[in-house]
Amino acid sequence: MVSGGHDARYIPPGAAHALDSAQATPHETDEWSLHGARIVVRAGALADAATLVRECAPGCRPIVIADSNVAPLHAAPIAAALNADLLVFPAGEASKTREQWSALTDELLARQLGRDTVVVAVGGGVCGDLAGFVAATYLRGVPVVQVPTSLVAMIDAAIGGKTGVDTRHGKNLVGAFHQPRLVLVDPLALRSLPAAHRRAGMAEAIKHGAIADESYFHWIAAHGAALLSPSLAPSLAERLVRSSVAVKVGVVAGDEREGGRRRILNFGHTIGHAIEHLSGYTLLHGEAIAIGMVAEARLGELAEVTLPGLAEDVAELCAAFGLPVRIAPEFSADAILALARGDKKSREGAAEYALPLRLAEMNEGNGRFSLPMDDALVRAALDATR
Ligand SMILES: NC(=O)c1ccc[n+]([C@@H]2O[C@H](COP(=O)([O-])OP(=O)(O)OC[C@H]3O[C@@H](n4cnc5c(N)ncnc54)[C@H](O)[C@@H]3O)[C@@H](O)[C@H]2O)c1
Ligand SMILES: [Zn+2]
Fold it and tell me: How far is residue 11 from each of residues 115, 126, 312, measured CA to CA in Å?
């Protein structure tokens, strides 16, 4: 662990076997193709950014966009290699607004950039969503290259084509689907990512293992401390990101606009989003999702959908990374239920939950992939998570 006194080497039963058999799984792939996007995951890949950007958008004029933290660390060298301008916005979720979208598009217009522009978004999910939405809308759409540098962006935000901004009515309410030409991931960029963001990203990695890849789940458990180390080894960094990318690509491939199987990625997110909101966004998204996964796995167990024991395994693994796994007393069941009902994943006012059957296998009943649940059961699951 980078901070705190937790022992991150929690190894659940069966892990040793999983480690042995983990050699031939999808993490050995370093490239994927998804809805027209080429996805490359290679340690050191940032050094090839200029070549790969030119290759995917031949003849296009690049413009690089990054936040104020990532600009000097990772974006400036890419802009220099591309001989491109670098536009910088203040780091943080507070920049994911229509105002910032407007300021950036004005910068593009002032430079008289045409339809032969390619936007290169270098940074975390905020940059990817914001710059992606700039690209989606500028002159009715120009190509975008995503160069994710946070764990959340590498394994989640940069893959799947969702872009957008927040409004005072809620997060991500104005946006567009806009598939990148290229997603260029250098897992070694994680070395400079602050520990809290590394941990929060691990919640989504744990989710990927929990919903679709048992050996990955055990591998994460066995490598906890090493995965949080500032000197993250290239082989571990690649395996981490590739395993998660393989899960996300596999799920999104058959369901570009979230009509079906993509819903399994929402495991932990119905209750997690409610808790994130109730915390006034003082909890990082991944922290709220860790609590949400534990509560929803308990809900699955109570509803006899989920094999008993999974909630405890997920809780132990999340806790090993210093992630919270209990619902604070100030977040009442009434408030969580009300927010869950208002969640955009709900149909006709009933909250829906993506529930596991067991480790790495999700409920896919009737092609619905998520289930409405009785309030009484949800309350019991919330109680059991306090
Ligand atoms: N489009 C999608 O499908 C999708 C999916 C998940 C999340 N998201 C969005 O992603 C956002 C969260 O992403 P995030 O957690 O990456 O937030 P973020 O972009 O704010 O990045 C977190 C922090 O880490 C810094 N940072 C990023 N990479 C760094 C690096 N390599 N070295 C040093 N500092 C670095 C950033 O400057 C920022 O301070 C939210 O807005 C969320 O809505 C979108
Ligand atoms: Zn999430």
Answer: 52, 33, 13
